[in-house]
Amino acid sequence: MVDPNCLFCKIAAGAVPAPIVFEDETSIAFLDHRPVFPGHTLLSPKQHVETLAGLPATLIQPFFADAQLLSRAVETALAADGTFVAINNRVSQSVPHLHVHIVPRRKKDGLRGFFWPRQTYKTPEETEIVRKNIADTVLRLRAGA
Fold first, then answer.
1. Which residue, 16, 87, 97, 122, shows the most beta carbons closer than 10 Å to its own?
2. What is the pLDDT of residue 145?
């Protein structure tokens, strides 16, 4: 399925040019036009999927195998010390089409962990409430509820 109004679908179809670094039957990867660092790559499924939750089960393995391959390729090709691999779901997702950011990293490159301030839980009880809520939701989702 393709969304004719989606930029990433247009790139996958060849209708919009992009600096493509990888393509197979599942995915397409291209350089981000506003990179955090040179080599910042976006990996996107060719099928229009808006968020990770919408990725069909049949695409999970090949898509994340491609993400693993691209992470190794970006690190090796750019002689980086590592990579930062991230997915935004809706919030901060500039194009509403699932994509994985693969950013080359170097020690002392100026990025400090995530791109936003970190917080702590106010109490151990708050930690337990959040933990239990997520764990219970996982059980419900796995049960199909």
1. 97
2. 61
